[in-house]
Amino acid sequence: MNPEIIGAGAALTAAGKIKEDSLLGMMYKDVMQPSVQSLGRALGNTIEFCTTPLLLCKFGSEAAKLLYQQRMDELAEKLMDIPKDKEIPVNPQLGVPIMDKLTYTTNDEIADLFNSLLSKAASSDTVNLAHPAFIQIIERLSVDEARIIKYLANKDDIPCISFRAVLPENKGWLEILKDATLIQFEVELLFPTNTSTYIDNLLGLGILRHSGTHYKMDEGIYEPLLKLHNFDSINIAYTQGGAYSHVEKSKAFLQVTAFGKTFILACAS
Questions:
Q1: Burial status of residue 111 (CB atoms within 10 A of its CB: 0-12, 13-18, 19 or more)
Q2: Judging by beta carbons within 10 Å of its beta carbon (0-12, 13-18, 19+), is residue 210 exposed, middle or buried?
Q3: Residues 190 and 121 occupy one common structural domain
Q4: Domain that holds residue 248
Q5: What is the C-alpha to C-alpha distance for residues 181 and 210, in angstroms, rounded to an integer?
Q6: 122 and 13 both lie in a single domain
Q7: Can you tell me the distance from the alpha carbon of 149 to that of 265, in angstroms, rounded to the nearest whole number?
Q8: By its UniProt entry, which Pfam families does this protein fall under (predicted)?
Q9: Rounded Cα distance, 143 and 107, in Å
């Protein structure tokens, strides 16, 4: 390990000032800016353990330096919203891996989830929300899933509906549509046809839970789903030929779990 790199990691002097040869000192000419000072107070302990960001900033490409400075600028903007009497240093257990991932996270929406998590860890009011496991969850999200996560903020659940064509005398059935929601109509997705895959991933991550055979008593909340997913047209298409006797619709809902709510509060609010 290069001793120069380790030494340059220490961000703050004993008096709490940002060192010129630290990562932040190299990135910002005016270390007395309030936003840079906020970064120093939040990340002073964390940067001591960081080597990858320093390497990129000191020896890497210009593009890597610019990307990392952009991420730090975005984080600084979030940190400025924390009252000074609530500021606390970010725990390196959470801060170090996030700082590392921000060196190569090119998508702004995924980076925003990481920075939101860092900002929660930098406030005494919200540090309880900043669980290290959330880092791995963000890593396993696509851009579209990050958008869905933000869509789920302030929601307890979302209705879903499934269609299946049934053979005469109930001798079998064909699944036509599974757990269809309004997500692809209400969220701007890059790949709306992948919505079912996104839902499966969020279920697997523990963000959502399927209600099983339970459904909402209010029939009205399912009407937009029937219309937007063309239930009437599907029913006609599958029954006119005589192969299937009818098309069944089953109602359910996807509940945002307690774990999911905490993740959303920590990373997407």
A1: buried
A2: middle
A3: no
A4: 150-263
A5: 12
A6: yes
A7: 10
A8: Abi_alpha
A9: 8
Question: Could you report how far apart the first and last alpha carbons of the chain are, in Å?
Answer: 39
Backbone angles phi, psi at 248, to 5 degrees: -90, 145
pLDDT at 108: 95
Burial of 61 (0-12, 13-18, 19+ CB in 10 A): exposed
pLDDT tens by residue, 215-246:
999 989 999 999 999 999 999 988 887 789 99
Residue 58 and residue 9: Cα distance in Å, rounded?
11
User: Which among 139, 162, 197 is the end of a domain?
Assistant: 139
Cβ density class 184-201: b for 16+ within 10 Å, e for less:
beebebeeeebbeebbeb
Of the pLDDT bands very low, low, confident and very high (cuts 50, 70, 90), residue 23 is low
Q: Which of 89, 117, 139 represents a domain boundary (last residue)?
A: 139
Q: Is the pTM of this model over 0.85?
A: no
Please indicate, yes or no, whether residues 119 and 196 belong to a single structural domain of this protein. Answer: no
**Residue 99 belongs to some domain of the structure:** yes
Please give the Cα distance from 206 to 257 (Å, whole number).
7
Q: List, in sequence order, every residue forming a beta bridge with 87; answer none if it has no partner.
A: 123
Token pair, residue 17, equals: 């000032």
